Amino acid sequence: MAEKKYDAKDIIVLEGLDAVRLRPGMYIGTTGQKGMHHLLWEIVDNAIDEISNGFGDTIKITLNKDNSVTVEDNGRGIPVDMHPTLHKSGVEVVYTTLHAGGKFNTENYKFSGGLHGVGASVTNALSKWCNVNVYKNGKEYFVGFHSYTDDKGKTHSGVAVEPLKQVGTTKKSGTKVTFLPDEEMFGNVKFNFDTICTRARELAFLNKGLKIELTDLNTGRDETYHYEGGIADFVLYVVEGKNKLFNKPIYFHAEDKNFDLEVAFIYTDSYTESSFSFVNNIPTVEGGTHETGFRSAFTKVMNEYARDNNFLKEKEQNFQGEDFREGINVVINIKMNNVQFEGQTKTKLGNPEAKTLVESLTIRELTRILADKKNNQTAEVIIGKAKGAAKTREAAKKAKELTRAKNSAENFNLVGKLAAASSKNRENCEMFIVEGDSAGGSAKQGRDRKFQAILPLRGKPLNAEKKRIDQVLANEEIRTIISALNTGIGEDFDLSSLRYNKVIILSDADQDGAHIRAILLTFFFRYMKELINDGHVYIGLPPLYKVYKKDYCEYVYSDVELPEAIARAGKNYSLQRYKGLGEMNPEQLWETTMDPEKRNLIQVTIEDAAEADKMITTLMGDDIEARKAYINEHANFDREDDFMKNYKKI
Ligand code: 28G
Predict the structure, then answer these.
(1) Distinct helix (H) and strand (E) counts, the chain
(2) pTM for the full model?
(3) Of 221, 327, 336, 458, which is most buried with the most CB atoms under 10 A?
(4) What does the alpha-carbon distance between residue 591 and residue 605 come to, in Å, rounded to a whole number?
(5) 535: helix, coil or strand?
(6) What does residue 274 show for φ and ψ, rounded to 5 degrees?
């Protein structure tokens, strides 16, 4: 097939660069660390696009000592010929024009990645400087861009220092980009090697065969990610530490016109579902039409198989979809055009055609796979698991009804522990889950009863990891939480009936408190994930110290702030160390931990769902050695532990 000729005039021109510095948020979300890393991913996306289209196979990412980062691919090299009307090279057009690129021109590029898809020009606009080398036609070309403020105080972003020129000859082919994020935009411009490794690994899983080499010249660390199994290797990575029910994941790849689907799944003995889906390399945390299509196809094909092979007797009812989801670990990876994102966090795929396409392709592929006798045993294992799940479903039904039945005597008792808020307006209402009866008592007295509810926890709630839903529901502490939130759990979870906009975990700043927090987060993660994804779960930070004198008092929330606070207090100060919430009287608890004007809250977010799943498996599972190793490596159950690592302080 003849390759379509692509040159500089094909690049669609939409807008100038100036807008980016004025409103960076519109292009990269935030000007925090996440936004800064986004600059890197825009460049990497372009390299992946080139490689996905069959040109080159390797991306090198290097963190340099001057805080700049270098990305290099071995593709064709960005076009260097002159754009007929803009009178600059293709490279300059790509790096100085917003939305420059054939991304909207599907003849040249089948699918394009990128969260915002705004392109390399945004990276250039928000960098102090950006250098591009192109290796093409035996020649090496170079163009440098910089951002500066002129004598009159006007800022210029991403301007070419001089036009692209040839700087040598080469045998190589590809593109190399080095840039330094602008300190003025981002403050701290140090890239995080671990963050980059995690996303690079994910990209390598999602793009089978792609090799990503990472080097940190500051530390000498290096990593290489390259998976011939693609997402089949991804699910195996996700289930490390879980007990697999069969060894090899089921994997299939299917295509339609302008649509590409890849699925891999494996079962473990867990009772919850772990699914991760992606569209054009972007995680769809809130799911969407592709997931719906897969689920419906899976249920249909498996029920048919069970029926045809006499696993379901004539008088027996079909399995429900949820029966097949117990213990499943799936990765769904699709590539398509004109993606529409919906949902609270714009991470839910909305395209209706994705449902029909994923559904029909999955029916076709799964039917083909099940027809192969080699897979008989695997199918039998899946059906066995579904049988167990169907039984549990019956057992759980009654318990679920109990948590929902509003006026039942038992429910009244449960919610009797809850000091509810008087306002019925969910938007302003919040519920504190408080460790211990004495702290619970103080919180009840100290709260603003209009909008704050208090739920004291007596003992430790059940560790929901690896527990069946009926066992989870048998736990009184957990039942109380579910009743108070009013959402139901698992498959029945319904966000629209949530009673409290903020659910705030308030536990002591010690090992036990960290454990209770981890148990609660595990429950929310496994049985109410949407509550976290939709941003309703928070951690309240009680103070660690009080520094005070006769007429001076300051609360301190972390060890690093203590010396400064002591300095502020001056000579002859007294220091109180709080060992638990229970030591504070109601007024103090209000003032330090509950008053929205003064308190420190941390919002729980899941930055990377697959990594979070692995973390919970390890921290809450029963492999003691793995847990110890993990805690040694990552967590100290302090304010910096891994549950809190990605939290946003608000
Ligand atoms: C190393 C860091 C980042 C790239 C190419 C190759 C071509 C190309 C890139 O075309 C139009 C603009 C962006 C998609 C295409 C070369 C056809 C023939 C190319 C990269 C369309 C420009 N010869 N390699 N762009 N693009 N690598 N690596 O940026 O949207 S960008």
Answers:
(1) 23, 25
(2) 0.85
(3) 327
(4) 26
(5) coil
(6) -125, 100
Catalytic center residues: 435, 508, 510, 512
- Report angle CA 45, 50, 55 to the nearest 5 degrees: 150
Find the length of the chain: 650
∠13-18-23 over CA atoms, to 5°? 110
DSSP result, 458-478 = -SPPP--TT--HHHHHT-HHH
Report the chain's C-alpha Rg in angstroms.
28
Burial 503-538 (b: 16+ CB within 10 A, else e): bbbbbbbeeebbbbbbbbbbbbbbbbbbbbbbebbb
Judge whether residue 108 has pLDDT over 80.
no
> Separation of 528 CA from ligand 1 center, angstroms?
42
Residue with tokens 């700049």: 68
Q: Is the CB of 461 under 6 A from ligand 1?
A: no
Phi, psi of 581 (to 5 degrees): -60, -30
- Both tokens assigned to 634: 């990552």
Q: What is the torsional sign of CA 478, 480, 481, 482?
A: positive
The closest residue, in CA terms, to atom 10 on ligand 1 is 78
Q: Are 111 and 52 in contact (CB under 8 A)?
A: yes
3-state secondary structure of 4: coil
End-to-end CA distance of the chain: 56
CA distances from 139 to 57, 144, 264, 288, 613 (A): 20, 17, 42, 46, 47
Which residue from 626, 638, 408 is spatially nearest to 509, judged by alpha carbons?
638
DSSP string, 130-147: EEEEEEETTEEEEEEEEE
Residues 6 or more apart whose Cβ sits within 8 Å of residue 300: 363
CA distances from 154 to 92, 124, 150, 187, 560 (A): 22, 17, 5, 20, 39
Task: Determine the distance separating the centroid of ligand 1 and the alpha carbon of 591, expressed in angstroms.
Answer: 56
Which of 6, 11, 78 has most ligand 1 atoms within 8 Å of CB, for mutation? 78
Predicted confidence (pLDDT) per residue in 448-476, tens digit = 999 999 999 988 889 999 889 999 998 98
In this structure, are residues 521 and 643 in contact, taking their beta carbons and an 8 Å threshold? yes
Alpha carbons within 13 A on the beta-carbon side of 40: 26
Domains of the chain: 18-226 (3.30.565.10), 231-394 (3.30.230.10), 410-543+578-644 (3.40.50.670)
Over residues 243-256, mean pLDDT? 97
- What single-letter amino acid sits at 521? L
Encoded tokens for 533: 């994804």
Do 488 and 402 meet the contact criterion of CB atoms below 8 Å apart?
no
